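Ticket closed. Logging final result for Class I SAM-dependent methyltransferase.
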Amino acid sequence: MFSPQGPSLRELVVQALSSVERGYDLLAPKFDHTPFRTPDAILDAAAGALRPLGPFGRGLDVCCGTGAGMRILEPLCQGRITGVDFSTGMLAQARRAHPDAEWSAADVRALPFAADFDLAVSFGALGHFLPAERPRLFAGVYRALRPGGLFAFPIGAPPPIKSREYWALLGFDLAMKVRNAVWRPPFVMYYGSCPLSAVRTDLTAAGFTVTTVPLPALGRRADGSPRCRLVLARKP
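Final structure:
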């Protein structure tokens, strides 16, 4: 499915009926051949927005998966770069792709770092956390950053309610809620659970100063607003 090197429909079904950790362990060898990997266009746009704010010292990729975010951290950071994820399968793929980076197997809701990093990034991970879990995630990133450190991640604008994308994402979220109501263990992945306003509120409560910058390279909506913004959460 997706490409000759990607997972089959059966493999995706097995993954979807597993826990989040086990599902990504299973998918890891073929993950980079699916649309779930963060597209290079998003990585490049984020790097372009962060470049004028650097250079940075040490860098951290939160929920690093197979290490796509290292494409940003390597040129932006002058110190060591580290990826953290709870899927050992995904980390194994990341180590092969980026042997010079450091890797940590950990639940990012309890990050094992304290004032170690100057830049933290995350791509495509917020949907794996229920709204009630975000404060723990953001508090851990806050602890992991040095004073003045920056936490950056892209967040898309909600699609227009009349668009096919809106109804496709809504349908996916409803299907996941039904799946999690009738099947254990749960697989948390929701596209509509992290609007910018709620994310900003949670980041501010964690102690961050929050701004955003548009990513114009990713296009604009019909009203002229950007389709995607980069959230910049600064630790004072």
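The chain has a mean pLDDT of 91. No further action required.
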